[in-house]
Amino acid sequence: MRILGALLAAILLTAVPAVPAQASAPVTATDPVAHDPTLIKQGRWYYEIITGDSGTRTYLPIRRSTDLIHWTYTGTVFDTPPAWVVEELGVTPADFWAPDINYFDGEYHLYYAASSFGTNNSVIGLATTKSLDQPQWVDRGMVLRTTSGVEDVNAIDPDVSFDRAGNAWLSYGSFWDGLRMRRLDARTGLLSTTDTTEHRIASRGGMAIEGPSITYHGGWYYLFVSFDFCCRGVNSDYRVMAGRSRSITGPYADAAGTPMTEGGGTQILAGYNDFAGPGHGDVYGDLFAHHYYDRADGGAPKGSIRRISWVHGWPRLSDPLSGNRGYGHGSAHVRLVHRDSDAVLANASCGYEGADITLAASEAENTCQQWQLVDRGNGLVSLTNRQSNKVAEVAACVDADGARVAQWGWLANDCQRFRLVPSTEGWSRIVNPLAGRALQPAGCGGAGTAVQTFAVGACQDFRVQPVGDVLLTDLANTKRIGDRWRFTHVTDGWYRIAAPGARRSLDGTFWRIEALTTGGYRLAGMNGRTREVLLLTP
Q: Coiled coil: which residue ranges (predicted)?
């Protein structure tokens, strides 16, 4: 405490006064129901076509808008499925999926998928019309087919793009072995009969990847895809990833150079605020249409439009044109630092489902060691790994001391929920609610040690270390405190909080971070002052 007192005296000379809260955050307009939107413009109207609602037999609903916010329903592409679809699949699909619309060769070409859910018994079809204002859709038949037990790819999620020479290409695929690409004949809209090469453009080795969309910018082709799981309402963990290539057929790689055929992808959008599971996007010029699951509306699927900008050769998505839902883009990324060893909680193998959680030597930029403490209600959080988007869980829900801790997709069960219980001097125990057992390294070891759960232990203290710039707001996320802040560790569980690059510290004191049982955090200052806040990603 003598060292801490000396440091505190130094910063008191240049202390930041109390920062007043800023104005309330904007409120969003109501977005329309949607899945898998595709976007195009004719005249003054933007047209959006979406996946139909399962069981309602609405085969590719259409709506239009002049401002990309207020939409009017105009009908469907099909009243009933074309006979060839039923004949090929052997069933009548309840709806069609994942349309993609483009204008070429004097017509609007709409590609769509029909399938049996959870199988790759699937077809991609084509319909055309010369106008969207008064459409007369013509069924052009089957473009591509995959059959269960025969192919290792799935003929869904079509996307058409053009290379710089004007050649048309069809991207498609999903689980199984990922995404493929075939050349199209732009005159017929069907597969080329002269170039039959199937290009493998992205894969996660059977894990969740789908929804390709390709655009060209600054000498690069950019492949947008969706990782992880849609269609689970508020529990969806869908997210948008991207890679780039000099050639439209690949190879595509992410910003770190990892090939997308080997699981690579740079994250450009993930769930935050009321936007759960955003994904399945369609790039149209500088616009990105996608769906999400509305946490404020029981997880209903909604459509959203964002603008694309480019930063250092990579796409960045704006907040929705219809309005944001509060400040920030989700919980701040943090490292969870072990008190006894100074090692950090880590997805040490950088793996996915089933990968063990261990302690690891701290590496500041390693995203496998960074977590989001996502609010799951009643003061409980999930520990969501930044690299994998998977959550820490008591593996198999084992209710015993020494239970293994691994990671898995979010399943909304108590094996995956934790409460941060304050200990002393800013340290906390990370307690699972199943039987009150807390995380601790096996044998109280350091880096490389497996993390397990124990009811009682001498080495269960961790501190929350925010990574990079952080936003502070009130607990309701309606008022923002200052601009951006950096948390610099001082000693024990205490931090200096200051604007990036500034020498002055918030309120002229050091702070510890304590989790509230109702959600959010209490910043407790050495000067006795407290603030109840959310810690958010800018």
A: none
Q: Which residue has the tokens 């990671």?
A: 407
How far apart, in Å, do the first and last CA atoms of the chain sit? 33
Same domain, 449 and 471: no
Query: Which has the closest alpha carbon to 496: 481, 480, 483, 513?
Result: 513
Same domain, 196 and 120: yes
The answer on 405 and 277 residing in a single domain is no
In the prediction, which pLDDT does 503 show? 81
In Å, how far are 25, 430, 490 from 515, measured between CA atoms? 23, 10, 19
Active site residue 157: no
What are the structure tokens assigned to 83, written together? 């006979």
- Tens of pLDDT, residue by residue over 371-399, are 999 999 999 999 999 999 999 999 999 99
Quote the domain boundaries for residue 196.
Answer: 100-317
| Secondary structure (H, E, C), 136-170 | CCEEEEEEEEECCCCCCCCCCCCEEEECCCCCEEE
Q: Which of 36, 48, 294, 393 is the catalytic position?
A: 36
Give the whole-angstrom CA distance, residue 161 versus residue 364.
39
| Options 31, 95, 177, 210, the catalytic residue | 210
